[in-house]
Amino acid sequence: MANKKELTKGLFKENPTFVLLLGLCPTLGVTTMVSNAIGMGFSVLFVLTLSNIMISLLRNVIPDDVRIPSYIVIISSFVTIIEMLLHAFVPSLYTALGVYLPLIVVNCIILGRAEAFANKNTVGDSAYDGIGMGLGFTIALLLIALIREVLGSGTITLFPLGEWSGVIHIPLIEANPIRVITLAPGALLVMGCIIAFNNYRDNKKASNAKRENK
Amino acid sequence: MKQYFKTASILAIICAVAALILASLNSVTAPVIVAYDKQQTINALNEVAHGYTLGDKVTTDSEVSPYYIPLIDEDGTVKGNILELKSNGYGGEIKLVASFDEAGLVLEAKVVSNSETPGLGKKSENSWYMTKFIGKDPIPTSKNQLSAEDNAAVSGASITFGAIAKALSEGGEYAKTLEAK
């Protein structure tokens, strides 16, 4: 029976971006627009879940000596599958994600979860871990992208729907955006602030618990 | 020896299964992708036609553009040409189509494919990006030749700007030679 704790840990307690600090390259790269963050987040969720399931299924078959090349073949196959599907059926998202889509192959979260979790645990637990970590990554990207796009461009870019372009304009900020937030240093600043807030909240929680125990 | 053979065989089987699955999926998605790319090129050519009728495509051996398409007005006079240009941006090749008048000035331009950074170089896909080049003589090849507002709009993606500017500038020079012919 799969442990549902594996599903929730990736969301906040072991969030891959804010706590484990994994997959920072695409995090900094694609979070200039909300739509890109959603696309990248769900692409990673898909690859992470399926690669975790496949690696867990094959954990007793794959010899230890060739486990890393085997994981890379499995992960890159799933990445190529999603790349082909997006290119054929959601070309606008495929174009928007650009070079970051094939780079999912070398995303540390996926190889990290394969090595640290999927090859030691059951298929059910590995699936929950993949979904939880994937959702945690998506939430983190979404939060960073929302802050960066609102402050840096004064817009929120979603997906076009019928005649609606998918872009929400924020009048006051759009006229006077903080340009640095859209650049790489801005991404690091936003991430740093969120991690600092997380640490502050965790420390406060820990000191409250300590006080109650006394 | 037996152990090495077993290990290599397992890795080979994993690779073969992966290749088989990808080949099967490719046979489904490849025709859709080819049709989409073809439609994108047709759309891009119509977008840069500047209201003129597209003439017959003429292939060339030039390094600047593999072909040109004459732009013909209502009287049947050639008013310019569309070129397909390529340049190297930050993330790899940038392909664009652009129409030029008889003096080599840009009439319209559109990026067809690129791998530039989302939010930065990807801005070049927007129609407003090309207004920095349309009708400009000479075609700006450096950010310093832009107004302060335009300079700020392309900031953070200087390599993309340089690549597009170089392609359009070379295209402009080539368009002049076509007119001379």
Give the biggest beta sheet of chain A: 2 strands, antiparallel
The fraction of residues assigned to DSSP E strands of chain B is 15-25%
| Assembly type | heterodimer
How many helix segments of chain B? 3
Number of helices of chain A: 9
What is the CA-atom radius of gyration of chain B, in angstroms? 22 Å
Topology of chain A as a string of helices (H) and strands (E): HHHHHHHEEHH
Radius of gyration of chain A: 19 Å
Q: How many β-strand runs of chain B?
A: 6
Average predicted confidence as pLDDT of chain A: 89
Major β-sheet profile of chain B: 6 strands, antiparallel
The number of distinct structural domains of chain A comes to 1
Structural class of chain B: alpha+beta
Distance between the termini of chain B: 71 Å
Residue runs with pLDDT of under 50 for 5 or more positions of chain A: none
Structure explained in plain terms:
The complex is a heterodimer of chains A (214) and B (181). With 214 residues, chain A is an all-alpha fold. Chain A has one domain. Chain A has helices spanning 5-9, 24-30, 34-57, 67-89, 91-97, 108-118, 123-153, 171-175, 184-213; strands at 155-157, 167-169. The two termini of chain A are 38 Å apart. Chain B has 181 residues and is an alpha+beta fold. Chain B contains three helices and six strands. Chain B has helices at 2-47, 148-153, 158-180, and strands spanning 53-54, 58-59, 67-72, 78-88, 93-101, 106-113. In chain B, strands 1, 2, 3, 4, 5 and 6 form a six-stranded antiparallel beta sheet that branches. Classes of the chains: A mainly alpha (214), B alpha+beta (181). Chains A and B meet through helix 4 and helix 5 of A and helix 1 of B.
Short description:
The complex is a heterodimer of chains A (214) and B (181). With 214 residues, chain A is mainly alpha-helical.
